[in-house]
Write a structure and sequence with these properties.
single chain; 482 residues; alpha+beta; 5-stranded antiparallel β-sheet; 16 helices
């Protein structure tokens, strides 16, 4: 439980028979509207706050310690802990409660995965974020669902409110750089024009790889065929691929949800990554192919991007424990990445997009500050790629480095090939970006090896290079070895 600031509110059970809780800070009144509904009345200034609770030891029912769940996609029944996700019913097995600030529904907060100690003593903890938008939102209400029996307000030992350590970072420089101009996601007009008219041998080989993937029919959630078709179509003038990218995007826009289930308040597990990838691909088509879309297509894409980005903004504020970006290897990094792409693509089209981008920028900045200095996390490349690509998105848009020192990025480029074999797919993209960022000739050489461009081999379609690889490569960085 992270408590970076002194508590503004600290509620403990009251010994007074007329009060359920007493605030040790003397700032808040609290009570039960009924057994399932806890209310807090306090005067908090508009801003971000982090709320935390823990129950008394022994209050988590022992009979729910192990639950029979079904794995996906095998559908085999397995024993699982009490805090999990049922992939067949799309139901959280973790206790949840609804949070309201004034009349505004902030969504469902989840209790935390218990530590071994909390499992031993059978105690529940939860941490969630609340944004107070106006001085009128003086009452915070916490509502336990009617069918949830594991969490009870009468069992709470402590409930605190702190200033939230998460933050937004200004987006003014992005507005100056991007303004109303497109493209603005990972590439600007001059770079795109240069790639259309003049490519060096490496750039040509990378474009050839994208074309080979398209011709081979390569597809999948993390393959990014839509983005590949959009970029390859632009760079080669192949209208068939441009049309394919637009058609696929319009098909995605017809889907009612962008994860693999339609429970918008529960976006955990693979659903967040899938939604993030669709946000990414839809955003780049909207940005890169803007002039090739009809007015109706633009409106449809803009509407769907706005709908999902607004929901991501909501849940990342609230569901602190899962979306906390100090876990660089977490699935949620994929959603942060897609969210940032959508916010940047919508800038100047959607009034809220600037604040969305500031929120993403601040969270990614904090994630980079606290990521392992050696660049090595539990998932060496797959999940951590999205944290690195979020930095690429922001720095390309701003036209400068993000402020701060990030040993994680230097450590990744220096150490990653000590832990994984050189391979295609995402690793060349990440190393090309880090080589450009740090003028790192060693990372440039490593990227060429991973892309099978060094010493003389051309990349093949089965290498699966990401379309952003073409945009991350800087021909001005000479590799450290021939």
């Amino acid at each position: 439980m992270i408590q970076p600031y002194d508590a503004l509110v600290e509620l403990v059970p009251s010994s007074c028979p007329t009060r359920v809780f007493h605030d040790l800070m003397g700032r808040t009144q609290a009570g039960l509207r009924d057994a399932k509904t806890l209310w807090l009345r306090t005067r908090l200034k508009p801003g971000l706050y982090l709320m935390e609770l823990e129950t008394r030891p022994g209050t988590f029912p022992s009979e729910t310690v192990m639950l029979a769940l079904k794995q996906w996609p095998s559908l085999t029944t397995v024993p699982s802990g009490p805090f999990d996700f049922d992939h067949t019913q799309y139901k959280m097995q973790v206790p949840v409660f609804r949070v309201r600030a004034g009349a505004r529904d902030c969504g469902l907060a989840w209790c935390e995965v218990p530590s071994p100690e909390d499992m031993r003593v059978r105690r529940i903890r939860a941490a969630w974020g609340v944004e107070i938008e106006s001085a009128d939102e003086r009452e915070i209400t916490l509502e336990i669902p009617a069918d949830e029996d594991r969490l009870r307000w009468c069992d709470v030992a402590k409930l605190t409110i702190h200033g939230d350590h998460r933050y937004r970072l200004p987006v003014a420089s992005v507005r100056t750089t991007a303004g109303l101009r497109r493209p603005r996601l990972f590439v600007d007009g001059p770079l795109l024009q240069g790639l259309m008219t003049e490519r060096d041998a490496v750039q040509q080989a990378l474009v050839d790889n994208l074309c080979a993937q398209l011709e081979a029919g390569r597809d999948g959630t993390y393959v990014h065929r839509t983005a590949t078709a959009a970029l390859a179509g632009l760079l080669t003038g192949n209208k068939t691929w441009i049309d394919e990218a637009i058609t696929r995007t319009m098909q995605i826009c017809e889907l009612p949800y962008w994860g693999y289930h339609d429970v918008k308040e529960i976006m955990g597990w693979n659903s967040d990554r899938d939604a993030g990838m669709r946000l990414f691909e839809t955003a780049v088509v909207y940005d890169w192919l803007y002039d090739k879309l009809t007015d109706a297509q633009r409106e449809t894409i803009r509407s769907r991007l706005t709908y999902f980005a607004a929901y991501v903004d909501k849940i990342t504020h609230l569901q602190y424990g899962y979306w906390f970006t100090r876990a660089p290897e977490a699935h949620g990094q994929g959603l942060w990445f897609g969210f940032g792409c959508a916010a940047l693509a919508l800038l100047d089209d959607e009034p809220r997009a600037g604040r969305w981008l500031e929120w993403m920028h601040g969270n990614i900045h904090e994630a980079l500050v606290h990521a392992p200095a050696d660049g090595i996390s539990e998932w060496f490349v797959f999940n951590v790629q999205w944290l690195i690509l979020s930095a690429l998105l922001l720095e390309r848009a701003m036209g400068r480095r993000m402020s701060g020192s990030f040993p994680f990025l230097r450590g990744f480029s220096k150490n990653i090939l000590r832990f994984v074999k050189p391979h295609g797919d995402k690793l060349p993209l990440l190393l090309f970006y880090l080589a450009d960022r740090g003028r790192d000739r060693g990372a440039q050489a490593d990227a060429l090896v991973c892309a099978r461009l060094f010493p003389e081999a051309k990349p093949l379609a089965d290498a699966g290079l990401d379309p952003l690889t073409v945009l991350a490569y800087n021909p001005a960085i000479r590799p450290s070895r021939p």
